[in-house]
Amino acid sequence: MTNEPIAVKHLFKPLDDKLIALLESLNPDDWNKQTVAKAWKVKDVVSHLLEGNIRTLSMQRDKYYGGEPPAINSYTDLVNWLNLLNADWIKASKRISPDVLILLHKATGGLTTRYYELLDLYSPAVFAVNWAGESESLNWMHLARDYTEKWHHQQQIREATGREGILTREFFYPFIDTFFKALPHTFKNIGAPTGTKIKITITTNIGGNWYLQKFKDSWGVLKDIDAETFAATIRIPPEISWKLFSKSIRPDEIRGRVEITGNSDLAGQVLNMVSVMA
């Protein structure tokens, strides 16, 4: 099973530079366009990305939490609390103009990147990556998770406004590689004979192959495998994968646009993977 760190530290600055250039290119109508995140317009997504920077600097760098969270007794409780925080911020940020949003992104983006660059990859992270089934995470996984947030929200803006995307090998592959860390957790309650293998392919040269295998007591993801036959294979275009696994679209909406062979129940469970807090 692969658990090697996913390298993303070097990508935060160029990704942020692309975001600033994108935001400065938007016209007044663009800010009000609907994104694939159904509750949010472009301006809302930009505000959410800004809060990510502010929350990182305040809570992680400065250890300032601003109050106690409610009792968290389940994953659902955690998701509901995070959704409430997000909604409160979006409501308050309605009063912030696009120009001020850009100004605040410029003020916080570099500081956030510098904080990320100073983290020891193998030290315990302040927050666990819950959607991967982790109750404790190392910083490399925490950073990879934060990278996926910055990548997929910027991609939402680009798609909504008709801008060229960031579906390149450099930026997309670390994103989707991190998302697939959720596969074993997605299959934790799925029974299958030991040795069962599933092949997942994200098509084109920006994607690759991931292999899910059933071991005695758990499932694990591998990058290489000595096998020619699989219980199921799934081929997904990259432009679908990022929306599917961030829960912006659901499996029933894209059944005709993915290729599935073998056990349809196992393949369907792959399509049900969600690699965000939702």
Overview of this structure, please?
The chain is an alpha+beta fold and 278 residues long. It folds into two domains: 9-166, Four Helix Bundle (Hemerythrin (Met), subunit A); 182-271, Nonspecific Lipid-transfer Protein, Chain A, CATH 3.30.1050. It has ten helices and five strands; from the N terminus they run αααααααββββααβα. It has helices spanning 12-25, 42-61, 75-93, 98-118, 139-161, 169-179, 183-186, 238-245, 251-254, 264-271; strands at residues 197-202, 208-214, 219-222, 232-236, 259-262. A five-stranded mixed β-sheet has the order 3-2-1-4-5. β2 and β3 (219-222) form a beta hairpin. α1 (12-25) packs antiparallel against α4 and α2 (42-61) crosses α3. The longest helix is centred in the middle third of the chain and has 23 residues, at 139-161.
Which features would summarize this protein structure in a list?
alpha+beta, Four Helix Bundle (Hemerythrin (Met), subunit A), Nonspecific Lipid-transfer Protein, Chain A, five-stranded mixed beta sheet, globular
- Kindly report the CATH topology of the largest domain: Four Helix Bundle (Hemerythrin (Met), subunit A)
Shape, principal axes of CA atoms:
globular
Query: Care to count the β-strands?
Result: 5
Major β-sheet profile: 5 strands, mixed
Beta-strand content: 5-15%
Radius of gyration equals: 19 Å
Strand order of the largest sheet: 3-2-1-4-5
| CATH C-level category of the largest domain | Mainly Alpha
Taking pLDDT < 50 over at least 5 consecutive residues as the criterion, the unreliable ranges are none
Instruction: Output the number of helix runs.
Output: 10
Question: What structural category arises from helix and sheet content?
Answer: alpha+beta
The CATH homologous superfamily name of the largest domain equals dinb family like domain
Report, as a whole number of angstroms, the end-to-end distance: 26 Å
- What is the string of SSEs from the N terminus onward? HHHHHHHEEEEHHEH
Oligomer designation: single chain
Helix-residue proportion: 40-55%
Q: What's the domain count? A: 2
Mean pLDDT: 95
CATH-derived architecture of the largest domain: Up-down Bundle
